[in-house]
Amino acid sequence: MNIPTNYVVALSAVLFSLGVIGVLIRRNAIIAFMSVELMLNAANLAFIAYARALQQLSGHIFVFFIIAVAAAEVAVGLALIVTIFKTKHSIDVDLVSSLKG
Amino acid sequence: MTPDLILFLVLAALAVATAVAMLASQSAVYSALFLVLNLVTVAVLYLLLNAAFIAMVQVTVYAGAIMVLFLFVIMLLGGQQAGSGPDLPWQRPVSLVLGAALIGLMAYVLLAGSRGTLLTAAPLLEGFGSPQSVGRVLFSEYLIPFEAVSTLLLAAMVGAIVLTRDERKEGR
Predict the structure, then answer these.
(1) What is the ipTM of this complex?
(2) Residues from chain A contacting residue B66 (CB–CB below 8 Å)
């Protein structure tokens, strides 16, 4: 396989930026959350690219851990979204402003 | 242009296109399905980058378990409706400008740092990234973090149950 590492890292950077734009643009909490998953995924891609370039398996292990932590995060995050929906009857992130000073 | 590079460019274009479609589609279900497509595309990229085990984990855990959870919650909440309140007039342009600035910054860092030695990778060891080699490192060097992750998953499971518990039924 002959893919320059820089190309893969550039793709990872673009995907990460798209995730950031998603969190900023969308006000549906579930879609903002999916954009966070997109960012995690972009970080994983950079890990794999550098793991291959530097011949280190540690990169693969860390991607494995990131996926496990993402699974835990999704479980708790979606439970929070369900709880917020029960009280506010909406998942618009603008409506969750009770702590605003 | 080698076949590898053409394959990479096709996959990269597909990944970016599905990510943009995820952000742009109005229906939350379509967004989730586009994200599944994006995750599968990235899994194929992992295969190209000699990470067979991680590619399988990506498909089963991410595209399988996590996205099914997302779809369940979207169906449960009827999350079809997008944002209901009045639009903030400045939100979209400002976030697009900020995102473009982030892309520009990352491009600058990548181009300024591209004169390293990363482009000329040595030939890979036999079996690099196979389940066997990853498992050997995971269960020797990284055994304690691995056990810590299992505790974290248990804590997340308990947390999800506690958060979604119906408190009105507690009194009986």
Answers:
(1) 0.91
(2) 37, 70-71, 74
